[in-house]
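I had to read the description of the data format several times before I understood it. In essence, backbone conformation is discretised, so a fold becomes a row of integers matching the chain in length. I therefore recommend that a typical entry be quoted early in the introduction. For illustration, here is how one protein appears when written out as sequence plus structure tokens.

***
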Amino acid sequence: MRTGKLSSALFFLLGIAAAAQATDTTQATDTSQVSIQFGLQDFRWREFRDTGERLLQETGERFSIGAAYDNFRREGAGVLYSVNGAIYLGRVNYDGQTQSGIPATTDVDYYGVNIEALGGYRFGRRIGLDAFGGLGLDDWLRSINDGRTTSGTVAYGYDEYYTVLYGKAGLGFFQLLNGWRYTLQGGVKLPLVTSQYVDLGSGATLHPGLKPSVFTNFQIDFGSGRHDRLGLALHYDSYRFSESDPELLTDGSSTYLVVQPRSHMDVYGLRLGYYFL
């Protein structure tokens, strides 16, 4: 992962906490809060031919740490806002094939940064409905390690850098019951701009096609007090990309066209949040 982007993400996460401290005087009216979040993800990436045949599958666990500043625990109707960021990483299993179509297995390392800003409106007080939408930026390194084909031949790996600007919109149901808050959210996510740099040979920049996907989030906040609260969330997130246009790539003395096949990403996660304001 590019060191500068990780450093920028760390400063961003710290900045969320600093912003919350600086605006603490507004807590009584908008019940804003800051949190640190730790997550475990069940990650799946699949690629397909146009005929529907699966080319490869990656499965495994990833871990995340992030911070958020929002007012989604406000009581009463009004404007909602949220700014959050996270760093995630993990090593997953690769079951696929080489560029020439020979079956191969290896591992893939993921390092990524996600930043998201949402706004919306709450209808209701202790029970009600939220409507929200916003933008997000996802940037990750997919590092395919050297592996082996079924015949034992070495299959050399390479790196891919993804950047996705996306929009999302959704609805949420909330209820405050016996001091505990329950929230169920869901909606649609749509990539707006995609860029995939393939670090192989002379390199090539691809643009996977834009397709909608869905997300859901169910969260329980334990206790309604302002300080030292915990929250536990089960969530699902996804991307859907159609096949990219081909691009020319030169590797040594060979020149050929490369394309990113139709791709699906699914993430099932468990996230623990600690609210200290």
